[in-house]
Amino acid sequence: MSGIQCCPCGDTFVVKKGMAAEVAPTAAYYREIAAEIKDFATRAQVPEVRRDLLDLAERFSRMAEFVERRYPARRTEPLP
User: Fold this and answer.
1) Distance in angstroms (rounded) separating the CA atoms of residues 44 and 54
2) What total number of domains does the chain contain?
3) Which domain holds residue 37?
């Protein structure tokens, strides 16, 4: 699957087959978001908020695993 260039900086993204206007998230993207949410959770003062954030981070980790299994080509963003 080829990537498209989105801006002058040269970044490329995988595009979903049949949906040229939408960018298909990669497993690496979901893992990056999960890590950011975990970071927020470590700084949360309220236990309920911390638990909810950790639950959300776990969901993003599971989405990354799903993408790796279902769409092996979308493990990481394509190289330019």
Assistant:
1) 10
2) 1
3) 3-74
Q: Is the entire prediction scored with pTM above 0.85?
A: no
Where would I find the H helices in 1-80? 27-43, 47-70
Kindly report, residue by residue over 6-54, the tens digit of the pLDDT.
555 555 555 555 555 567 888 999 999 999 999 999 999 999 999 999 9
Q: Cα-flanking dihedrals φ and ψ of residue 7, to 5°?
A: -160, 170
Note the Cα 66 to chain centre separation in Å. 11
Q: Which two tokens stand for residue 51?
A: 């638990």
Q: Which two tokens stand for residue 78?
A: 């394509």
**74 by DSSP, 3-state: which?**
helix
